[in-house]
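Re: weekly structure request thread

Next one in the queue (88 aa):
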Amino acid sequence: MKKRKPYLRGTLGKPFYNNNIGPNVRRLRLSNDIKQEDCAKALGISRQMLSHYENNKFHVPELVVAKAICYFKITIEILLSDNALSAA
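Done, posted below.
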């Protein structure tokens, strides 16, 4: 049996291989004064998984990126930029 990587489990889709997404989600969340628990619930993931994404321990799946774009009302360019707050 072939062993699968943890970020490919489930139905979240392929991961984005961009190291700016997680920290940008954290910056946006903190600048909007949103708790990690509330943000994770809106993105449909656990608080622990959001923490992993924010700390770049895992790559963020496409579905979570799409939900983050809708949740923060931003564009993909802002989420992929080097600094989300300066681009917003």
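Residues 42 and 71 are 7 Å apart (CA to CA). The chain has six helices and no strands.
Next request, please.
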